[in-house]
Design brief:
Elements: H1 16-21, H2 27-36, E1 48-52, H3 58-70, E2 75-81, H4 94-103, E3 107-112, E4 120-127, E5 130-143, E6 162-166, H5 169-172, H6 174-187, E7 202-208, E8 213-223, E9 231-236, E10 240-249, H7 253-259, E11 272-275, E12 279-282, H8 307-337
Parallel strand pairs: 1-2, 1-3, 6-7
Antiparallel strand pairs: 3-4, 4-5, 5-10, 7-8, 8-9, 8-10, 11-12
Family: Belongs to the RPF2 family.
Main location: nucleus
Region (Disordered): 299-338
């Protein structure tokens, strides 16, 4: 099979790989490259790449449209078919990694349909624009958002959903643990330290049964209860679908260790503290100083003596020898008389 024109090429000067390795010529280009560069602590939401394989069904197209609505503003959707993308086969992830690098995406959704795996939705993540881990979801019993009417009209664009996972399988089976981790990472949205209660307007519920998993999204509505805590009412808003787990692939141990690295805290500086009023406060220890009185220091004009006082002292110094001579002559005269 001939490579697609969109696949990366080391000899093509217009390739995205070469563009990223190329140095910026302007300050704006440098800022853009710094923004796209991987960071130890990501503060922005993770962009999701949404695309279809060589064959796709109408069910998958409608489902990915609804999932794109859930991640509006944090997804890059591609409408064309991509025949060469087979992430579970060797070398089949090359085009997928290239598209992720071009869209600056950290996760992906791939819709494919085959005889063995009809309505197969593959969810996965990237690390440093390389395939990290992924899992296949075999979709069934799909219901779109439009089939629930106006149940989700109160949901605000960009709000963070609550995510609930019910069932022991999410804690005991490795494949289910991986599925839970990927679903959390894909739908978590932008990281936040505080959340307003009124901003929590929807919840995603995943229920693990013996043979399948139920994926439901419900709208949260607050009603008066006569107390400070409002009464919570859940109303299903879609999309709604069931899925079975297909193939899954975990990340290698060395790559996982590099991806899960945490930022080191700032090194503690001795004798430095933070104050609410003064900000940074430091304490300095100085040894006892000796000989400060003997040092020749500059004196300001305010400390200098007046000229009149200095002239009087000079006159007194001149008169002092005459007084001593008169006193000595008087003493000699007294001795002679005696």
């Amino acid at each position: 099979m001939e490579p697609s024109s969109m696949e990366p090429s080391l000899t093509d000067p217009k390739s995205t790989v070469n563009l990223i390795l190329k140095k910026a010529k302007t300050p704006l280009g440098k800022r853009l490259l710094m923004k796209k560069a991987p960071k130890l602590v990501e503060t922005d939401g993770k962009m999701c790449l949404m695309l279809h394989g060589g064959r796709s069904s109408q069910t998958l197209k409608n489902l990915m449209t609804d999932l794109g609505v859930m991640k509006k503003g944090e997804c890059h959707k591609m409408s064309r078919k991509n025949d060469g993308i087979r992430p579970f086969e060797g070398g089949g992830e090359t085009s997928l990694e290239f598209y992720a690098q071009k869209a600056d995406a950290g996760s992906f959704m791939l819709g494919q349909q085959t005889k063995k795996r009809p309505d197969c939705l593959t969810l996965g993540r990237f690390f440093d624009y390389h395939l990290f881990d992924m899992v296949e979801l075999l979709v069934s019993e799909y219901k779109s958002i439009h089939s629930f009417g106006s149940a989700g009209n109160q949901a605000v664009l960009g709000s963070k959903p609550c995510m609930v996972f019910l069932g022991d399988r999410f804690e005991t089976e490795p494949a289910m643990k991986l599925t839970k981790n990927i679903l959390l990472d894909v739908f978590r949205g932008r990281p936040a330290t505080r959340i307003n209660l009124k901003g929590v307007d929807r919840v995603i519920v995943c229920t693990a049964l013996e043979d399948k998993v139920l994926f439901r999204q419900c709208a949260i509505k607050y009603k008066k209860s006569g107390t400070r805590m409002p009464m919570v009412d859940l109303q299903e808003m879609g999309p709604s679908f069931d899925f079975k787990l297909g193939r899954h692939q975990e990340a290698p141990s060395d790559v996982k260790k590099a991806a899960y690295a945490k930022a080191k805290g700032a090194r503690k500086v001795k004798n430095v503290s933070q104050d609410a009023l003064e900000g940074k406060v430091g304490r300095i220890y100085v040894e006892k100083q000796v000989g400060l009185d003997e040092m020749a220091m500059m004196k300001p004009k305010g400390l200098k003596r007046e000229r009149r006082q200095a002239a009087e002292e000079r006159e007194e110094a001149k008169k002092a020898p005459k007084k001593k001579k008169l006193a000595a002559a008087a003493a000699d005269q007294d001795e002679d008389e005696a």
